[in-house]
């Protein structure tokens, strides 16, 4: 049983009274925590229980002393004593939960004096460990209620709601059920849906989630718990992308497991997803065996934690990020040799002496510095937006974006091959659906030098017209936010939250190169269209967080070629000549970017 003993008052005097209240209430109502095995006469006490009692005595001295209660070091000594008990007996179902609960209580009491947010976080962490590791402990629902109070204190009401709903769904017979229900109502949340579900079991018939149920096959008992529904991957020689699909947003922690030669296990990288359940019937092992990853395995690691393990082979270079609407976690693995090579024809006779290495702007041997750095262009991936079940925007007369952009993409590919002899890869050659994550994965797997995604614009205001080109960055204006939201099939609110996703990714994205490429394509598309058509509006180069560009390892842009929602521009998009002009502009822009990039790094005197 848990008694709410810290009201977390703002003044120090109240903090002293709170700690005293905690001591006496804790002893009065929770005697089993201190003397659960005490009986009249001789009683055998386990080593674990004895160690716990010693730590409790140290806490008793602290709680009785006004001087010690003001001393942070005294609190930390007690916490460390309890920590040693837990570390010595981490699997003792009687002592370990009590040690965790007391540690959390100490951090919570310390906060009454320190006002340090780190103390609250440490308290919550111990409560979480208790609930995850000992879900059947009689202290689990007490820990959840304590977490709800702390989350409420921090203003994180939805996290408080999650903890309270977990009490109602997983501990319906516990002593915290009624008080949790009242608190939910007080916070303005209705009761959670009743769990009339089928128990989830593993392949051997054992209950996967003790005390919890899931609706067969994929709906969780509570709206706050995620279901890991599928794992997909795309792979090539030096690159693999794995996408983990989840029914809702879920937190994830990353870690590594060392190799074990005796058991034949390679080094493993894992993600722990929580709170989450594994969908029944989800394949538990996916063989990849592409040289980078041997396999991906998934299991219900703990009651509300799904672990996804990646068996590494020839890579330790991994990157993890997430995308929303729908929520999915993306894992990229790169080979040691993941780099672009440019198969160029030597421009100088073999007898010519090499220039001295080590000087900026000079070449070594027959390759310019641009070629050595992989800044040349020889392989381009063209992405026709939407496709299959996703028609994209639809014009006033019914013209579908997916059809228009595929035709433009085909024309761009043909023209690039004819004019430059480059390798050009289309993400889709026909009317088929491709997830946004797969489009970038194709570009990465093929080691593309450039990635261009082609789209037709649309807006509620049907008078809007023109051409605009985007590169990946944070949106700077409402219109860019609207376009990104439409292409991402999400909301503007979600777009504004993408900063959390992009902060780490942008460090490895060629923003400057993408900006230059976007400028070249924008200039040439507008220029080509204006040669033949009137009223072609240049909307310029913009930046926004497009999902299709996230994770690309090369300069990448998204071109909005015209407004299909505008009657005049929709009519033009039906014309093969108009599409030819657009394709010519995109091709000229790519070639111009490629020439400028290589010329910038040619040695002095070369042409």
**Name given to the CATH architecture of the largest domain:** 3-Layer(aba) Sandwich
The helix count comes to 19
- Average pLDDT over all residues: 77
- Span between termini: 82 Å
What is the CATH level 1 assignment of the largest domain?
Alpha Beta
Helix percentage: 40-55%
Task: Name the beta content range.
Answer: 15-25%
Structural class: alpha/beta
In short:
The protein is α/β, with parallel strands linked by helices and 607 residues long.
Could you describe the 3D structure shown?
The protein is of the alpha/beta class. The protein folds into 3 domains: 12-186, Serine Threonine Protein Phosphatase 5, Tetratricopeptide repeat (Alpha Horseshoe); 214-334, Immunoglobulin-like (Sandwich), CATH 2.60.40; 369-600, Aminopeptidase, CATH 3.40.630. The chain has helices at 12-29, 31-35, 47-64, 66-69, 72-88, 95-114, 117-133, 140-154, 157-170, 177-186, 369-372, 401-420, 436-445, 478-488, 492-496, 499-505, 511-530, 567-573, 576-600; strands spanning 214-215, 219-220, 226-236, 239-246, 251-257, 268-274, 276-278, 285-287, 293-302, 305-312, 317-323, 328-334, 379-384, 423-426, 450-457, 467-472, 538-544, 556-563. Strands 14-13-15-18-16-17 form a 6-stranded mixed beta sheet, sandwiched between helices. A hairpin with a 4-residue loop joins β11 and β12. The longest helix is centred in the last third of the chain and has 25 residues, at 576-600.
């Amino acid at each position: 049983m848990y008694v709410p003993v810290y009201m977390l008052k703002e003044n120090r005097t109240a903090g002293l009274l709170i700690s005293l209240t905690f001591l006496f209430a804790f002893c009065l109502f929770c005697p089993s925590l201190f003397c659960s095995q005490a009986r009249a006469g001789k009683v055998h006490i386990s080593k674990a229980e004895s160690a716990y009692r010693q730590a409790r005595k140290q806490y008793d001295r602290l709680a009785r002393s006004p001087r010690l209660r003001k001393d942070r070091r005294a609190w930390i000594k007690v916490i460390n004593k309890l920590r040693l008990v837990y570390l010595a007996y981490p699997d003792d179902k009687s002592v370990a939960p009590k040690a965790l609960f007391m540690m959390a209580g100490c951090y919570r009491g310390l906060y009454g004096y320190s006002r340090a947010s780190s103390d609250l976080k440490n308290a919550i962490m111990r409560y979480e460990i208790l609930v995850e590791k000992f879900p059947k402990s009689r202290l689990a629902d007490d820990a959840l209620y304590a977490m709800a109070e702390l989350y409420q204190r921090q203003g994180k009401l939805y996290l408080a709601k999650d903890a309270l709903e977990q009490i109602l769904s997983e501990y319906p017979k516990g002593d915290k059920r009624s008080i949790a229900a009242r608190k939910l109502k007080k916070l303005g949340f209705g009761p959670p849906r009743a769990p009339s579900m089928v128990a989830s079991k593993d392949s051997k018939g054992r209950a996967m989630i003790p005390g919890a149920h899931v609706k067969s096959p994929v709906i969780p008992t509570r709206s706050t718990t995620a279901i890991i529904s599928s794992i997909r991957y795309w792979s090539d020689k030096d690159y693999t992308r794995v996408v983990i699909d989840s029914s809702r947003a879920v937190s994830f922690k990353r870690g590594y497991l060392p190799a074990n030669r005796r058991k034949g296990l390679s080094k493993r990288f894992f993600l722990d997803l929580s709170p989450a359940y594994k969908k029944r019937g989800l394949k538990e092992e996916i063989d990849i065996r592409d040289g980078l990853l041997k396999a991906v395995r998934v299991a219900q690691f703990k009651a509300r934690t799904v672990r996804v393990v990646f068996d590494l082979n020839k890579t330790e270079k991994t990157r993890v990020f997430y995308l929303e609407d729908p929520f999915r976690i993306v894992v990229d693995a790169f080979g040691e040799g993941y780099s672009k090579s440019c198969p160029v024809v030597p421009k100088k006779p073999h007898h010519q002496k090499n220039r001295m290495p080590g000087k900026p702007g000079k070449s070594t041997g027959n390759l310019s510095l641009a070629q050595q750095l992989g800044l040349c262009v020889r392989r381009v991936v063209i992405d026709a937006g939407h496709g299959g079940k996703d028609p994209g925007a639809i014009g006033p007369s019914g013209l579908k974006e997916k059809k228009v952009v595929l035709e433009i993409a085909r024309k761009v590919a043909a023209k690039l091959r004819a004019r430059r002899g480059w390798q050009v890869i289309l993400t889709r050659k026909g009317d088929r659906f491709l997830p946004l994550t797969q489009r970038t994965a194709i570009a990465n797997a093929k080691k593309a030098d450039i990635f261009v995604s082609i789209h037709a614009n649309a807006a509620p205001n049907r008078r809007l017209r023109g051409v605009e080109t985007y590169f990946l960055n944070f949106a700077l204006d409402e219109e860019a936010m609207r376009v990104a939201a439409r292409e991402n099939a999400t909301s503007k609110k979600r777009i504004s939250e993408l900063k959390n996703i992009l902060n780490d990714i942008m460090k490895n994205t060629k923003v400057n190169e993408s900006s230059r490429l976007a400028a070249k394509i924008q200039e040439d598309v507008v220029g080509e269209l204006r040669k033949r058509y009137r009223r072609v509006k240049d909307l310029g180069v913009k930046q926004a967080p497009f999902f299709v560009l996230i994770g690309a390892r090369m300069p990448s842009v998204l071109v909005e070629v015209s407004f299909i929602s505008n009657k005049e521009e929709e009519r033009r998009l039906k014309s093969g000549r108009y599409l030819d002009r657009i394709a010519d502009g995109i091709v000229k822009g790519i070639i111009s970017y490629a020439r400028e990039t290589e010329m910038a790094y040619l040695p002095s005197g070369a042409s």
